[in-house]
Amino acid sequence: MSVDAAPSLRRSLGIVGVGIRREPRWFGLAVAGSALYGVMTVLTAWAIGKVTREQIQPAVAAGGVTGAQLWTIFGWVAGVVVVNVVGVVIRRVAAGYTMYNVAAGYRREVTRQYLRLPLSWHHRHPSGQLLSNANADVEATWNVFAPLPMALGVIIMLVAGIVQMVLVDPVMAIIGLTVFPALFLANMVFQRSMSPRVSRAQQLRAEVSEVAHESFEAALIVKSMGREEQEARRFEEVTRRLQAANVEVGRTRGTFDPVIESIPTLGTLAVLVVGAHQVANGVLEPAAVVQVAYLISVLAFPVRALGWVLGELPRTVVGWDRVDAVLKARGELEFGDESLVRTGAARSRLDHVDYSYDIVDEHGVESKFQAIHDVSIDVAAGSTVALVGPTGSGKSTLTNLTLRLVDPDRGEVTLDGTDLRRVARGGVSSVAALVPQQTFMFDDTVRGNITLGLDFTDDEVWAAIEVAQATGFVQALGSGLDTRVGERGASLSGGQRQRIALARAIIRRPQLLVLDDATSAVDPAVEQAILAGLRRSSAGTTVLVVAYRMSTITLADEIVYIELGRVVDHGTHRELQARCAGYERLVTAYAREAAERAAVIADEEAALAADVDSAEEGVDAP
Amino acid sequence: MSTSIDATSGLGTLATLRRGLDLSPELRRGLGVTLALAAVTTVGRVVVPFVVQKTTDNGLLGKNGPDPGLVTQYVLLALIAVAATAVTAYAVNVRLFRASEAGLATLRLRAFRHIHDLSMLTQNTERRGSMVSRVTSDVDTISQFVQFGGIILILSLGQIAVATALMLFYSPLLTAVVWLCFVPLLFVIRRFQAIVGRAYTKVRERVGDLLAAVSESVVGAATIRAYGVEERTAHRIDTAIEDHRAAAIGAQVRSVVAFSSGQLVAGLTLAVVLVVGTIQAVHDDLSLGQLLAFLFLVNLFTQPVQQATEILNELQNAVAGWRRVIGVVDTHADVADPGDAGQVLPRGPITVEFDDVSFAYPGGDTVLHDVSLSIAPRSRVAIVGETGSGKSTLAKLLTRLMDPTDGTVRIDGVDLRDVRFSSLRERVVLVPQEGFLFDATLRENVRFGRPDATDADVTLAITELGLDAWLAGLPQGLATEVGQRGESLSAGERQLVALARAYLADPDLLVLDEATSAVDPSTEVRLQRALEGLTRGRTSVAIAHRLSTAEAADEVVVVDQGRIVERGPHRDLVRAGGVYAALHASWSAQQRG
Asked: What's the CA angle centered on B319, arms B315 and B320, to 5 degrees?
């Protein structure tokens, strides 16, 4: 970020301009209110002068005062004051509307970007930082609208004041006017010195938020491993750095504030000293000196309001840079305009697909890691295909590719022959549904989590719940379908969340259903019931299932066995068992283990029996 | 019994400030000196315009014409005052920043630590995003006020006092008039304060909602894309943004009205003083010059009064933030560390006893009924049962993530509630199904179990668990960055890391709650063998759907509808032909396919 003052000022004014164009009416109204306030502030002095000359002085001279005179005095002063207050109310209310409307607009845009940008982008950005961008950074950018209308409104006062000064006496005016460049210069230096400090504090604020966010999300682990102290130290470390950075901001502010505040006074004093000599030399009238001194003191306040704006600008620039980085981020998936066939089971194909993840090492160096190598899978319409492979072999990546959550680096992913990249936005999700390994629940009702806003009747919802074997526990919930599940479904167990997620997919009657180990948290009996229900209800659905359980695997028409991101073999269960050693080892692991244990136990029992026999023999012997 | 996190503390403004100062003692430290310096600054700020006025009156417009000498004298006096004011103002500013930043850091740390002390049940009563705002933006609101509003408030109050003294010197009657005009304002302000306070509290709550809504779009990114519900999510976020905007504008309007009432009264006071002053002047009780001089003082008085009323509105915003932080700090920690009063148990083989333990979620049905169970040292126990039978509840009670509603859980004969947390967590470690990973390297995540572990320790742990081949397949081995919440790894891989982490922590009792549910069968069998070898001398309790775990255990405990219905070694239970035998038959059938 630039610390060069002039371009930075131009930049920040540019940013402010962007904001103004968002809410020109409210901003205009705020400036108008501010102008009214400016005019009325000048008029207050004028009104007091007027009633003094026209009412008070004659009354004092006459030695008596009428009620009408008193009302006139009160009326003038009070009238000007009321109008002034109206100006202030307009300015501040309209400034509030400008600020919050613009901020709300940017919050919408930033969060739209979050929804638009690809998963790979999300993986690269800590969620704490994204929260900070949408909240604190947007706020920091547009807070400038609080003092801005006042500053702009009083520029009118400033110009009028300067003109008056020049009219009174050019020489005195020049002395007086040096105050304004001095103020401006002081503000510049102030801004230059503030900007990096504010930027640092804002960055640290985001870091504090990131640490807190991660730590609270990890609460269960922190607690169950007794690492509260360690986490507190981690949080303290970044909090202390923020503390130090904020104190630095305060020190800078503390240095400049008094200087900026004393400049107009110094100007007034200079005018008085020089003016007194000029008057003594008969060059100038005393009244002229008084008037210039007065004007400086009157104008000092508005100039300070300008100073507030200038003081706010570094924050504006820093906040904007962070917000703009999100808005400028590119790489969202491009969509075509083709639509998919909307009836009957879909055929899903991966054709010579490569996929690499962006990875960042400890030192922040980016590189690629190829997770999928030249994979081709053909899932025939109406068939069930099982993806089997060891942990970390790339099965979930393949499910993500199948539904175009990510695009392949090479090769083609198609549904019914259409390359997914040519399908219109929303086209894939209207045909295919994924139940991921780790389910995500919205802070909504059970119904809302299943329908996700689509129009389903309660009967349809219950039918889907039935297939997902969730009827029992949903009925037992306090408000049935209307029970709120809490943030991330916190009030449900892992198995319950999985079944809600299944119902979410089932109710859509997808033409392609992708289950990514979607029943890992439910027990075998429930899983069997779910699979049976799915088979009954999924006529017209193609199923791609990531599974470890033999019962699931044997339901499949075809099995694709994967290791290290490559298809090792594919075929029926029997074929693979016969010719693929890795597959055989994986799927029979439990059975082999059980057999081995049984053998060990049999040995032990035999040995034990032998011991008992010999012991008995021993008893019998004597 | 369990508690929920209070949205806000419910304390009044003064009580909030008092409690806030207690929680951040640094705010009070050195406050006397700061106030003294502020008093000097205030005097300086009043003296300067006063001297300027005197310079004009006596030096420039004096009866004997302009007197440059006198003007120079006055100006020098003013310069000294300006310099002194600048120096003291700097000192006040820096002292205030130092004290407030130190005090608020303390508050932040305290709230953060306390949130971790709250039980999982209590934590789950609030969204994570909202909890984050309590240690971030809520505290920031307070610091904004203390640093910018605080100094202005102090200076304003000082100026009000000095101006009142000067006004009294000129005209006690008019001073009384000024104060009479402002007294009603005090009452009005009190009412406004309450209204504005409520409005800002609402804003703070809406910020929490906003963060929660935004975090859904970030954390749920994959699901949102898979179901094409971007529009619906956007709509939900928009609602939160709009609610926040409306609340913020509502608070702004209310605070503007409150602020303007101060300005209005200030202006009207000027008018009243003019009227009363005119009557006095007509009766020769006051000269016209004195009246005009008094008007100058009224300005010196009303200006800080207006500022103070405005700052008091900002104070409400800060108090609203403060209340939310205090709300969480003062939330009772229901599953509390006995601390120094608790026992420290020696390491070694551990016994576990459940004695008539029942548990019910707050306001919910009882999920465990009178469970009694004892687990011998060095034994491996598997707890099985259908989803929702109460297995996980047993695990949570055993690790004291929750306390039983009735009955007692003991380790080595000591009630868990009497064991110091540091000792308990050292001896008992839970590996949950979804073990959270930090956005760091694999190495750092495993080391979370034992921060002083070396690379060699970490590698050894992974090798001993039989996961070295998996490790070798990772892009950068131990240095692999696991990403946000470990999302660069698959769910199964995350479980492997979580297991290695717990294994490195080396507890006496390892509680595995579906800890390998997403791992492939051959890796799971390998892990199980490794753990068997390694858990000799260690007690382990495993909850699993995959009955391979139960087959390997010394004892199987079958839970059904919150009660223990069967227990014994695997083969005995299979022979007995009860609930377990049926579960096992269905499991075996699945394995055969």
From this structure: 120
Contacts of B21 by beta carbon, 8 Å cutoff, 6+ apart: B27, B28
Residues A482 and A467: their CA atoms lie apart, in Å, by 19
| Residue contact A261–B90, C-beta within 8 A | no
Q: What's the CA gap between B342 and A450, in Å, rounded?
A: 47
Is A368 within a domain? no
Distance from A369 to chain B by nearest Cα, in Å? Answer: 6
Domain boundary assignment for chain B: 13-329, 352-592
Comparing CA positions, the residue from A574, A87, A477, A85 lying closest to residue B266 is: A85
Contact B256, A96 (CB under 8 A): yes
Name residues whose C-beta falls within 8 Å of residue A269's C-beta, 6 or more positions apart in sequence: B52, B75, B78, B79, B82
Integer Cα distance of A193 and A143 in angstroms: 20
**Per CATH, is B13-329 categorized as 3.20.20.140?**
no
Question: Which of A127, A357, A391 shows the shortest CA–CA distance to B476?
Answer: A357
- Decide if A416 is inside a domain: no
Q: What is the pLDDT of residues B439-469, one digit of tens each?
A: 889 999 999 888 899 999 999 999 988 898 8
B52 and A269 within 8 Å at the Cβ level: the answer is: yes
Domain final residue, candidates A290, A310, A328 = A328
d(C-alpha A206, C-alpha A222), whole Å: 22
Q: Please enumerate in sequence order all residues whose Cβ is within 8 A of that of A353, keeping only pairs 6 or more positions apart, or say none.
A: A372, A374, A375, A376, A401, A408, A410, A411, A412, A413
Structural domains in chain A (count): 2
> What are the phi and psi torsion angles at A530 (to 5°)?
-65, -45
Global pTM reads 0.81
| CB contact B330 to A (< 8 Å) | no
User: What is the C-alpha to C-alpha distance for residues B158 and B189, in angstroms, rounded to an integer?
Assistant: 19
Q: What is the pLDDT of residues A303-357, one digit of tens each?
A: 767 777 877 787 888 889 999 999 998 877 788 888 888 788 899 999 999 999 8
Domain assignment present for residue A64? The answer is no
pLDDT in tens, B79-99: 998 999 999 989 988 998 999
Pick the closest to residue A519 from B497, B225, B516, B518 (CA basis).
B518
Query: Closest partner residue to B439 among A111, A214, A426, by Cβ?
Result: A214
Bridge partners for B541 per DSSP: B381, B511
The answer as to whether A159 is a domain residue is: yes
Q: Which CATH superfamily is domain B352-592 in?
A: P-loop containing nucleotide triphosphate hydrolases (3.40.50.300)
Asked if the model's pLDDT at residue A619 lies above 60, the reply is: no
Query: Given an 8 Å threshold on Cβ–Cβ distance, is B267 in contact with A357?
Result: no
Q: What angle do CA B542, B558, B391 make, to 5 degrees?
A: 55
Closest-CA distance of chain B to residue A150, Å? 14
The continuous run of DSSP H or E covering B451 comes out as: none
- Among A225-229, A353-357, A489-493, the minimum mean pLDDT is found in A489-493
Main-chain dihedrals φ then ψ at residue B115, nearest 5 degrees: -60, -40
Give the pair of three-digit tokens for residue B213: 């809504």
CATH code for position A226 = 1.20.1560.10
Query: Which domain, by its residues, includes A145?
Result: 5-22+98-328
Domain boundary among A280, A300, A328: A328
Note whether B290 contacts A: Cβ–Cβ < 8 A. no
Chain-chain contact of A440 with B493 (C-beta, under 8 angstroms)? no
Chain B residues close to A52, C-beta within 8 Å: 288, 292
| Chain A residues close to B295, C-beta within 8 Å | 48
Return d(Cα A224, Cα B397) in angstroms, integer.
11
Indicate the Cα dihedral angle A568, A569, A573, A578, nearest 10°. Answer: -90
Q: Do B583 and A525 touch (CB under 8 A)?
A: yes
Whether A239 and B109 lie within 8 Å, measured CB to CB: yes
Question: How distant, in Å, are the alpha carbons of A11, A117, A406, A547 from that of A410?
Answer: 42, 20, 12, 26
